[in-house]
Structure formats: C-alpha cells, structure tokens
Specification:
twelve-stranded antiparallel β-barrel, single chain, Outer membrane phospholipase (ompla), Chain C, mainly beta
Length: 291
C-alpha cells in the first residue's frame, strides 16, 4: 500500500509544470542562506530502541544552502536537566544527524527540472549515537553509525509547497552489534516539509515535520543466542507532525510523532524479560531560540 502511494505521488510529480532555480547566470551562491537555533524539548512516550521513554532534551539545530550544498543537521543532548526521574538518566545521551545534499543543477549550472521536481541532488545523511546496548546481554556494547546515500529532490506538492524528497540506500557501519553491521541493508524513503499556515503580522504558525520509511532490511532475519528470531523487523516507520508558533527570535511548538516498529524492533513482544513498545504516538513540546 505504501509503495503504491509513493508511485502515485511520483506520477503526479513528473506530470506537473516546472519552475526551477536558474543557475545559467553562473552564480551558484545567489540563493545562499543559513539558520541556527536551539530547541528545548520535552518528549512524552518517545520511542528509540525497543522501549518507550519520557525525557527532556536540548537540541542544537541548523541548516542552509551554500553553493552546490544543501545542508541540515542537529545534535541532541538527552536528560539535559539531569533528572533522576528521566528514563534516559545516566545512560548514553547524545545523538547527531548530518544531512548534506549536493545539487546536480548547481554543479552542471543547468535547469534539470522535470514536472514538479525543481532540483535534483546526490543526497547523503549520517547518524551517530553514543555507545550503548543495555537491552541485549548477548551483544557487545557498541554505538550507532549509519550512512544513507541516494537521490534527493526539491519537489512542489499541492498545499504543502516545496518539500524535500529523498530515496536512499542504507550502509550500516555500527548498529549496537546487530547482524546487519558493515553492510548495505535496506532502503529509505524520506520526506520533510515546512508550511506557513497562518500569519499574525511578522509572526506565523507553521505546519512542519518529516517522514522516514525504512524497508527491505535483512534485520528481520536476525537471530539471537539460541538461533531464534531476535524480535526485529524488515521495516520501520516514523513521522513527526508539528505545529509551531514562530516569531523572529522565538518559537513554541507541539508535535505528535507516530511510530511503527521503531528502529526495527517488533512491537509488544517479550524481549529479555521486558515487553517491547515500538508502535504508537509520542507527544513533543518545545521552546526555541533562534540565533
């Protein structure tokens, strides 16, 4: 069903009229920009690994454009309030994501737009987390390091406007000791958007978020110490649907995040004496300062 929906979106995308950035004048820095902000989040019923948790964390987030490079990234510091009641207290508490997309249009100084696709990219994304594996005594203590590589676009969609769409393969460098380490494993469909829906003078409310669908992974065949199924799946889904009130320097936000088999752990099974919880809804509240 999901794959069919993606194909319908692609059919629409390539049938639309296109108006793209013009690089023919030679100045690939004409649309350069950058932004940087810090977000303090409180997340209720977050999923990460096989269990849900509630925690407050600090995020340093940035993005922009410089010549051929479209970039985005953040670093999260969990349990930032050093709260003994946090389910992340005294555990591995940092996570970073860096996404760099390299524009084919800018590199070639040509308009490659087709239909609703305004720009094409070689899209990369790198994720890194602290060393931790407190769920599974049969695996060594290792970190998470994952690289996504593939094709990206800026695409105009009805109502949402310009969105980022990427289709990528995954190279798993480390995955807390899982069987798919040091291999290409699975595919990813990624989408992100930012849509102003209501304005109050210079202030506005935005609908913003992202979607990640990971699939065709071999991790569903992973086995434990007794050769039994290890409670993993071949797919994972998450999407964040946020409504933020923005001013020039500040923002207040709420977002609902929907998960299915988060990080490819099966939902509601016994996992080393604890019941997994990887499918459901989390609630995120944030205050933001923009530099």
């Amino acid at each position: 069903m999901f794959v069919r929906s993606v194909l319908l979106v692609l059919l629409f995308v390539f049938s639309c009229t296109s108006f793209a950035v013009d690089y023919k004048e030679g100045d690939i820095h004409a649309i350069d920009f950058h932004w940087f902000q810090t977000n303090l989040y409180h997340g209720v019923d977050q999923r990460g690994g096989p269990f849900k948790f509630t925690d407050s964390y600090l995020e340093l987030e940035f993005g922009g454009r410089s010549g051929i490079v479209d970039y985005y990234g953040y670093v999260d510091f969990l349990d930032v309030l050093n709260d003994s009641n946090s389910e992340r207290h005294e555990k591995a508490n940092s996570f970073a994501k860096l996404a760099f997309r390299f524009s084919f249009d800018a590199m070639l100084k040509k308009d490659l737009a087709v239909g609703a696709v305004k720009e094409w990219y070689f899209a990369t994304e790198f994720m890194n987390s602290d060393s931790e594996n407190h769920w599974d005594p049969t695996r060594e203590n290792r970190a998470l390091r994952v690289l996504w590589l593939g094709l990206g676009t800026d695409t105009e969609l009805p109502w949402l406007g310009l969105v980022g769409l990427n289709f990528q393969t995954r190279y798993i460098i480390e995955n807390y000791g899982a069987s798919n380490e040091e291999s290409f494993d699975g595919l990813v469909f990624h989408m992100n958007w930012f849509k102003s829906v209501y304005s109050f003078g210079d202030d506005f409310i935005a609908f913003q978020g992202y979607l990640d669908y990971e699939f065709l992974s071999s991790l569903g065949d992973d086995t434990g110490i007794n050769g039994e199924n290890f409670g993993r799946t071949d797919h994972s889904f998450q999407t964040y649907l946020g409504f933020w009130y923005h001013t020039k320097r500040y923002a207040l936000g709420y977002g609902a995040k929907f998960y299915v088999n988060m990080t490819q752990f099966k939902h509601d099974i016994n996992f080393f004496g604890n019941q997994t919880d990887t499918t459901g809804v989390a609630h995120y509240f944030n205050v933001t300062y923009k530099f």
